[in-house]
Amino acid sequence: MSKDTYERLPHAGDFEKESGVERVYLSPRPVPTGMPPISTRQLHRYINETYLDISIGQGNFEFLARTGIGSINFIITLLFFFSGFASYLRRNAEPFLSGWSNFFFNPVLWLIIAAIATTYLYYFTQAARQVSIHPPIRFNRQRREVVFVPKKGDTPLYAQWEDVISCVSAGTHINQYAATPDYKLMIGLRDAKSGNVLWSVIPSGNLSLAISEWEAIRAYMEDGTSALPTDEPDELEEGTVEFFHLSRRSYRANYSFVRYVWGFLTIQFFSGWTLPCYISGWVNNRTKAGFPKEVQKWSQPLPTEQHAMPSEELLRESTEIRKAFAKGQNMLDYFKVKFAETTQKSESAT
Fold it and tell me: Hey, where are the domains in the chain?
């Protein structure tokens, strides 16, 4: 985990390796990354020529809900077949149906299942609550400042854009089933008085996508909305019912019927079908915490002559790294950063 306190701010290109997690900093001094400015996590909740708001997308809650429903259904299904198998083995000592009924409807087992479901529901509602009590992070390109309100009623934390701490990390997530690559974009705002850093962690599918998430923010702050790809009017957001059915049709068109039945229909049926999409929609449509009046005033457009300008150091470093890109180097080459072999393989496959 990145530090919560910094005596000295890191710099774009700094590299760390700790407890098997490799981390490269993209900011302070947010130079171009050479990656396309896209957000696959639908983080950009509101954008205009003055500011950009980012917060968690709908697909994140759809995945959380689907995981919870699928896990509980998996446990119940496992209990159903295991109790049937055990009752079959004991059919000579007790009639099959009565033995199966006594086993499957055992109140102790169902109390355990209910406890697991309640625990997951608690953590899900806590995660959903964070969306309503936390305003989004607001990036003001005219002031070249960023503001974050930890929760409703707290004092806003302001940071200079060029001092925002940003890094991408590559590690391994290990659970009882498998070890899978784990990639994150981390954005930290540092309190100049205390040195404490408030982090926002954004999971990503791979290292390139994590960098692209940051590049979208950087491109907006430096070049405005024109630097971002134009949203297609018919583009569907991940986590919605429409996106679910689009994925279903795509899966049916690209795979055999057997794989479609067992690889999509069965899994999605046991994980709630479209119910997680509706739950996600409810979470995201709840009333969000607003910004205090001082932030609203801070967010007002400024006359052109009052717009903050990038520092000479940032302009110089941005020019240097663009020259390196023109010679065929990428950002990691320019900063002489070497990620582990497993990470490099993952990236080359994407």
Answer: 15-336
